[in-house]
What we know:
The chain is mainly alpha-helical. It is built from twelve helices and no strands. Its main location: membrane.
Amino acid sequence: MLQFFTRIPIKLRLSADAEDFGKGLVFAPLVGIVIGTILGAFSFGLLYLLSKPLVAAIVLITYILITGGLHLDGLGDTFDGLFSNRSKERILEIMRDSRVGTNAVLAIVSVLLINYAALCQINSTYFLRVVMLMPMAGRIGSLISSAVSTYARREEGLGKSFIDFCGKKELIGGLIIYIVISLLTFDYKMWIVLAVSPISAFLLIKVLSKKIDGATGDILGAVCEINQSIFLLIACSVLV
């Protein structure tokens, strides 16, 4: 999962099939916390040298470098397709097109602006914890979306293995990991913020998958990124 979802250089040759990818989503929260720990460690040093707005910008750029913009790409493709006002078949074609449209650019820029503004507003007491937990809150969205969805395409696609082989067992296991990590914050305000993420993920996948009667890999990425932004917005409201 770390090899697939991040650019972290793990030099191991692993033999994995489609089923392994789907079942491996149980570890999505752990992948999130690994990314968050790197971002948190980076931020800890930078906060002594730079202002919080500058650190927030660097955090987001580092996040993109670590993930390779994988889920942001899915976000862009999703918005290009869903906001094209075309038929289901044409929407799926647009989502698969490697070219970037206006809706994709607007969606990615909007999400990054929200994330930046929210990080700038986070109470300094909570800043490092929010940065560390933000990727986990996003990736619980990918897990939940895969577990409660059906695959929208007739042909094979990147998201098929995740959606077809991530079931109730993986969902329950991933949620247990998510809850345990959340409880380790030992802060009831953080618990409130983190409790919203699984709910918002479930609602997001229902909305985004309605138009094409299912989900794709791009939609899983979109849920991850939007869920991350919702986590930051809730954090701004609660962590005061």
